[in-house]
Amino acid sequence: MKGGRTPVQPGIHLLENSIQHYAWGSPTAFTTFLGIPNPEGTPMAELWMGAHPKAPSYVRLSDGERVPLGDLIERDPVSWLGAAAPRYGNVLPFLFKVLGVTQPLSIQAHPNKEQAREGFERENREGIPLDAPHRNYRDPNHKPEVICAVTPFWALRGFRSPGEIARRFTHPAFEPLEQAVRDLRIDPTPSGLSRFFRTLMTLEPQVKREVVTTASVAFRDHPEPEYQWLLRLADLYPGDIGALAPLYLNLVKLAPGEAMFLPAGELHAYLEGVGVELMANSDNVLRGGCTPKHVDVPELLRVLTFRGKDGVEVLSPREVAPGLWAYDLPTGEFALSCIEADDPVEVEVGSVEILVLLGDHAIFSWEGGTLELSRGQSVVVAAVVGRYEVSVEGRLYRASLPVA
After folding, report:
1. Exposed, middle or buried by CB within 10 Å (0-12, 13-18, 19+), for 205?
2. Is 188 helix (H, G, I), strand (E, B) or coil?
3. What average pLDDT does the segment 118-137 reach?
4. Residue 347 near residue 388 (C-beta atoms within 8 A)
5. CATH number of 107-303
6. Residue 108 counted as an annotated binding residue
7. Does the annotation place 110 within a ligand binding site?
8. Where are the beta strands (DSSP E) in 5-45?
9. pTM of the model
10. Whether pLDDT at 3 is above 50
């Protein structure tokens, strides 16, 4: 430690986290679920738990000094991350969040590892500053993610089947797309879907405004939720062609406890609700609409996966040990589980863990001591802890590394 201070012993420690105040955030969700006062009613969008340099979590020492979590891991990666530390470059490979969404986020997708590395290097060569508004790649990493609903959670995820898209766009409101719809019916393949989406995204600005305006009038009284979301998006982003996304992307409503995994290249948007989100430690986003931020259509088209399918796989947890429920995820960077039981739960620790309490109270006990949590608090657990027992009133959401 700097100045000769005693290093933090790897164990179980309270985290101090940052809140991101984006405009789409909720003025009430974090007070309700995390116990964070918000007398001014400021939109609170994301609570970040992890070691991302933009907003790292801190561990407070006994003398009051705050140490970034990433610094602690860097000094003793195996004790914190476990034996797999070298596989992850001796750094925490995930970022854990709580989201409070009251207005839809932008329609977006994330690159795979190869695309991210190539794009990051290319924009570096072009001399684009990392904080430039038109920069697409802010790091060389991919960003698979999972969202787990705390409240009913609305989202868009993945292209519908070409036949269903053509059906929904066969309407006089979409006259400028008539030929594109006809072509999609003739060629309902990924390449046909790609051409349809390219046509939609590259319409002249005036045509985009006219299509969105006409559709808003035509579907004003349509009862299906897809059309109600179209109206809401069109109201928030007048003339933005992204308002039509509920007709070409699958609309999903997750019940509390249900989750949805988002791989690279999958076009999606979060619309409304409170959830916990776990992702690879990256900030790369390619946007496709419903945003005042930079939209790079050619780059978005390059990273998207054009697999059309009606419906979305919804994940429910399975009990893997008494009181411990896990979600099956196809990724090597993170694992998501939750702890909920009337009796104390024994947990075997194989890697670093971050847990956040969405409930009233929790008590951790391990060989090194005990630690109490109140609503909204979070802890980091070092791999060397090996085992702990926890009693919880409510639910603990738990991010960790996959078991090898």
Report:
1. exposed
2. coil
3. 94
4. yes
5. 1.10.441.10
6. yes
7. yes
8. 12-14, 18-20
9. 0.93
10. no
Virtual CA dihedral for 16, 41, 253, 17, nearest 10 degrees? -10
* Token pair of 341 as six digits: 């039981």
State the residue for tokens 């590394």.
401
Q: At what angle do helices 190-201 and 162-169 cross, to 10 degrees?
A: 40
R_g of the chain, CA atoms, integer Å: 22
233-265 pLDDT tens trace: 999 999 999 999 999 999 999 999 999 999 999
What is the band of 7 on the pLDDT scale with cuts at 50, 70, 90? Answer: low
Residue with tokens 């994301």: 46
Q: How many whole angstroms separate alpha carbon 220 and alpha carbon 384?
A: 58
Are residues 224 and 231 in contact, defined by beta-carbon separation less than 8 angstroms?
Answer: no
Q: Is 335 left (phi over 0), alpha (psi -120 to 50) or beta?
A: beta
- DSSP lists the bridge partners of residue 272 as 154
Taking 60 as the threshold, does the pLDDT of residue 202 lie above it?
yes
**Cβ atoms of residues 357 and 310 within 8 Å:** no
The residues assigned a catalytic role are: 287
Domain boundaries along the sequence of the chain: 107-303, 325-400
Q: At the fourth CATH level, which superfamily is domain 325-400?
A: Jelly Rolls (2.60.120.10)
303 burial type by CB count under 10 A (0-12 exposed, 13-18 middle, 19+ buried): buried
Measured in degrees and rounded to the nearest 5, phi and psi for residue 117 equal -65, -45
Backbone phi and psi for residue 188, each to the nearest 5 degrees, phi listed first: -85, 45
Whether 396 contacts 340, CB under 8 Å: yes
Tell me whether domains 107-303 and 325-400 share a fold: no
Residue matched to tokens 């309407």: 171
Which tens digits make up the pLDDT trace of 316-371? 999 999 999 999 999 888 999 999 999 999 999 999 999 999 999 999 999 989 99
The single residue listed with the structure tokens 């969202």 is 147
Q: What is the spatial distance between Cα 336 and Cα 147, in angstroms, rounded to a whole number?
A: 10
